[in-house]
Write a structure and sequence with these properties.
Layout (H helix, E strand, L loop, with lengths): L6 H10 L21 H16 L5 E8 L2 E12 L4 E2 L6 E2 L4 H14 L20 E5 L5 E5 L6 H6 L12 H6 L14 H8 L17 H13 L3 H13 L20 E4 L2 E4 L25 E2 L1 H12 L3 E2 L2 E2 L3 H7 L7 H5 L6 E3 L4 E3 L2 H4 L8 E4 L5 E5 L4 E6 L10 H11 L14
Length: 435
C-alpha cells in the first residue's frame, strides 16, 4: 500500500518550511565559554596533524561542538596528495554508512505522519517481501533454505535485525550470482528499488528478529521512503531534510564543477597509505557515473560542517533554528537500545553498546571501555569517518577522513579520547554562554 499527499499539500508544506543559512552553527566565543580547554583542544589539533605528517592518513577534518556552538573545526594534511591539494574544512567526503542516520530520520518522519508504522510488515509497501526465506548452514558447504518464521518489519530494518547482510552470508553464492553483494551502489545504472526487488527473493542470513545482521536494511528502508512519499530518496532528503536545514553540501553525487572539493581515497598498506585504485571502492563514481542509484545505506557525500548541523538538530530534540524534523520523543525512541545484547553478540568490539533506530548507543561505560557517557549515540562509515553525539555533555564530534581499507588504524579511538580530555567544565562553561 502506498500513501501519497496531494501535490498541492506537499508544496504547501515545503513553502511553509524555513531553510537555515548554510553558514551553520554559531562559533563559540572561546572553547572555555562552552566548558572546553583551548590548550587541550590544541592537543587534538597537534595529534591529528601528526597522523597526516607521519603518513598514517592523507588528511583529516575534525569537528567538535558543545552547547550548540562550534568550538573546534580543523583540517590537517592533504585532500589529494598526488594533486598537491590541501585538506580544507570545506572538503567533501564520502560518508558511506553515515547515510543510514539520514534515512532513519526520513523513515521516522513518515512514522510521525502516520504514513508507516514501526510494526508494519515491509511487504505492505514492497510486496516482493511478502514471503522471504532464510539460509540455514548444513553439513560442509551445504545450505538449506527455509521459509522465514515471520514477516520482516520496518522496526527490523531500522535496528538491523531483519537477518539481511551485504550478501556475504550462508547463501553468498546465490547473492553473488544475482549481482548483489557489498554496500556500494554508485556505479549502478539502475535505481536501488530494482536491486531491492530482486533481493527479496534471495535467502537471508537469519530469521527476522533473531540476530543483529548488518547489511542492506537501510537501502530497503530508503526504497520504502520512496514508495510512501512518491519521491526519489534524493528528492525526499533535499525537500524534507537537507534543504530545510541548509545542508548545501550533502548529496548523493557531486556536481562536476565541484570535483576538486572531493577528498581522495587512500588505503592502509604496510604501515602507511597508498592511493586507492579499486575501480568501485577506490575513488568511486560520485562525480562521473550513472547518478541514478540513491543508496539509503551508504550513498551520501557531506562535509563536517553539514553533518555536524544535522547531528545538532537531532541532539537538540529534532529541531534546529526553527526547522523541526522530529519530535523530542521520537529522538528519545531512536537513541535507546532496541536490540538487547544482540549487537555485542554480533561484533566483538561492541561490548557495552546497544543499537537504536539508526544509531549505536552506549549502555555500559565500563564494558564499553572508552571515553563517553551512558546514552551517547553515533555510528560511522566505511571510509573511516565516525561521529557521535553525547546528550549528557551536550556534545557533537566528527572525524572525517577517507581511508579504505583502514587496516589497524587507531585514529578513531585517539580522536575520541582527545575530544573528551578537552572537557573541563559544564556545557555552559565558566562564562555561561547561551545558545
Amino acid at each position: 500500500m502506498t500513501h501519497r499527499f496531494p501535490v498541492f499539500t506537499l508544496l504547501a508544506l515545503l513553502l511553509a518550511t524555513p531553510a537555515l543559512s548554510a553558514e551553520g552553527l554559531p562559533t563559540a566565543a572561546t572553547p572555555e565559554s562552552v566548558g572546553l580547554s583551548s590548550d587541550r583542544l590544541e592537543r587534538l589539533r597537534t595529534v591529528m596533524q601528526e597522523y597526516a605528517d607521519q603518513g598514517r592518513v592523507a588528511g583529516v577534518v575534525t569537528y567538535v561542538a558543545r552547547n550548540g556552538r562550534v568550538a573546534h573545526l580543523e583540517a590537517a594534511g592533504m585532500a589529494d596528495i598526488e594533486a598537491g591539494r590541501e585538506m580544507s574544512t570545506d572538503s567533501v567526503f564520502r560518508i558511506a554508512s553515515q547515510t543510514k542516520a539520514v534515512t532513519s530520520v526520513a523513515a521516522m518522519m513518515l512514522v510521525e505522519e502516520g504514513r508507516i508504522g514501526l510494526a508494519d510488515p515491509v511487504a505492505r509497501y514492497l510486496p516482493a517481501f511478502e514471503k522471504t526465506t532464510v539460509a540455514v548452514p548444513g553439513d560442509g558447504s551445504s545450505v538449506k533454505v527455509v521459509p522465514a518464521a515471520r514477516a520482516i518489519t520496518i522496526h527490523d530494518l531500522l535496528t538491523h535485525t531483519a537477518g539481511i547482510s551485504y550478501g556475504e552470508g550462508p547463501a553468498r553464492d546465490r547473492w553473488k550470482a544475482a549481482g548483489i553483494q557489498g554496500w556500494y551502489f554508485a556505479d549502478r545504472d539502475e535505481p536501488v528499488s530494482a536491486v531491492v526487488e530482486r533481493m527479496a527473493s534471495l535467502p537471508m542470513d537469519a530469521q527476522p528478529g533473531e540476530r543483529f545482521v548488518y547489511g542492506y536494511n537501510s537501502d530497503i528502508l530508503g526504497v520504502v521512503v520512496e514508495k510512501v512519499s512518491g519521491m526519489t530518496l534524493a528528492e525526499f532528503f533535499a525537500k524534507r531534510i537537507t534543504g530545510p536545514l541548509g545542508l548545501e553540501d550533502t548529496m548523493f553525487y557531486l556536481p562536476p564543477a565541484q570535483k576538486d572539493r572531493l577528498a581522495a581515497v587512500y588505503a592502509a598498506k604496510d604501515g602507511g597509505i597508498v592511493r586507492a585504485t579499486d575501480p568501485r571502492l577506490g575513488q568511486g563514481h560520485y562525480v562521473e557515473g550513472p547518478r541514478v542509484a540513491f543508496s539509503g545505506g551508504a550513498g551520501l557525500l557531506s562535509t563536517a560542517r553539514d553533518y555536524g548541523r544535522f547531528l545538532q538538530a537531532l541532539l537538540d530534540g529534532g529541531e534546529l533554528g526553527g526547522v523541526r524534523l522530529l519530535s523530542p520523543k521520537t529522538i528519545e525512541l531512536m537513541t535507546v537500545n532496541h536490540v538487547g545484547p544482540r549487537l555485542a553478540e554480533a561484533w566483538d568490539d561492541r561490548h557495552g553498546m546497544g543499537f537504536g533506530l539508526g544509531f549505536d548507543v552506549v549502555v555500559d561505560l565500563g564494558e564499553y571501555a572508552r571515553h563517553g557517557s551512558l546514552g551517547a549515540w553515533g555510528w560511522g562509515g566505511a571510509y573511516h569517518t565516525t561521529y557521535w553525539a553525547d546528550p549528557k555533555e551536550d556534545l557533537v564530534a566528527l572525524l572525517m577522513t577517507q581511508l579504505l581499507p583502514a587496516g589497524d588504524s587507531d585514529i578513531q579511538r585517539t580522536f575520541r579520547a582527545l575530544v573528551y580530555q578537552a572537557i573541563v567544565g559544564p556545557p555552559g562553561g565558566n562564562q555561561g554562554e547561551q545558545r
